[in-house]
Specification:
Blueprint: H1 13-16, H2 22-42, H3 51-72, E1 78-82, E2 88-91, E3 94-100, H4 108-111, H5 115-125, H6 127-130, E4 133-141, E5 147-156, E6 161-167, E7 175-176, E8 182-183
Parallel strand pairs: 3-4
Antiparallel strand pairs: 1-2, 2-3, 4-5, 5-6, 7-8
Helix pairs in contact: 2-3
C-alpha cells in the first residue's frame, strides 16, 4: 500500500460484512497481543533466541490461540479454514489472516491469496466484491518486540489498496468511577495463563461465556506471520 490510506479506507469492517463486529475483532486482536506477550516472556536470548525465533513463536502461539478458541465452542462465530503455516481463520464465514508488520506496508507475501481463501471469500461476500480482496490483521511491534498497534485491513489488488484501515481498540469502553473520573479497562485475557504468573483469566465472547483452560498441545515451530 503506497502513501496514506485512501478515503475508501474510512469504511468500517462491519460496513463491509456484518460478521466483522468490533467486539469480535477486539477478541481476536487480544489473542494475538497475548500470544506475542507470551513469546517474549519465554524468550531466552542467552540461549540463542533472537527477533526471528521470537517472531516464529509468536506466530505459532497466535495460531494456536485462535485454533483452540475456535474448537472450544466458546466462540461460536470463530473457525479455522486453513491450519497450515498459511493459517486462515474465519469470523463466521469470512476468511482473515494475521501478520506481524506495518499496516501501511503489507508485503507481497501478505497480499498473496491462496485458492481456498479466495473461494471462501467469494462465498461470503460475492464473487464480484471479493475480486482481488483480502482481509488482514496487522500486528505492529516496537523495538522491544511488544505490540504497539493492531489494525484490521481490507486490501485489494497487487498494490494492496486499502478499502478499510481500522486500528482495533485494545481497551474496553471507559467506565465511570464513583468520583466521576474515567477509567479504561483492558480487554480480559482469552483464557490462557501468562507464563510469568499463576491463574487463568476469563475470556469473552458474544454471549459472555467463559473460555475453558487450554488442553495440553503439541510443540513445534512455525514461520513468522509476515
Amino acid at each position: 500500500m503506497n502513501g496514506p490510506p485512501s478515503p475508501a479506507s474510512a469504511r468500517l469492517p462491519w460496513d463491509i460484512h456484518p460478521a466483522l463486529t468490533e467486539d469480535r475483532l477486539r477478541i481476536c486482536a487480544r489473542m494475538l497481543v497475548n500470544a506475542r506477550r507470551d513469546a517474549l516472556a519465554m524468550a531466552s536470548y542467552e540461549l540463542g533466541d533472537d527477533p526471528w525465533s521470537v517472531g516464529c513463536r509468536a506466530f505459532a502461539f497466535g495460531r494456536n490461540r485462535l485454533a483452540r478458541a475456535a474448537s472450544s465452542g466458546s466462540f461460536n462465530w470463530l473457525g479455522v479454514l486453513d491450519e497450515s503455516n498459511h493459517f486462515v481463520f474465519l469470523i463466521e464465514d469470512v476468511p482473515v489472516r494475521f501478520y506481524r508488520g506495518l499496516a501501511d506496508e503489507p508485503s507481497v507475501r501478505t497480499l498473496r491469496r491462496h485458492e481456498e481463501e479466495a473461494s471462501q471469500l467469494s462465498l461470503a461476500i460475492g464473487e464480484e466484491e471479493a475480486e482481488g480482496l483480502v482481509f488482514r490483521i496487522a500486528v505492529e511491534t516496537g523495538e522491544a518486540g511488544r505490540v504497539e498497534r493492531v489494525v484490521f485491513l481490507a486490501l485489494r489488488g497487487d498494490e494492496g489498496d486499502a478499502e478499510c484501515f481500522w486500528p482495533i481498540p485494545l481497551e474496553m469502553p471507559a467506565e465511570e468511577r464513583p468520583e466521576g473520573s474515567v477509567q479504561l479497562r483492558l480487554l480480559p485475557d482469552d483464557g490462557y495463563e501468562d507464563p510469568g504468573r499463576k491463574g487463568t483469566a476469563i475470556g469473552t465472547r458474544d454471549t459472555g461465556r467463559r473460555m475453558p483452560a487450554p488442553r495440553a498441545g503439541r510443540g513445534g515451530g512455525s514461520l513468522p506471520g509476515n
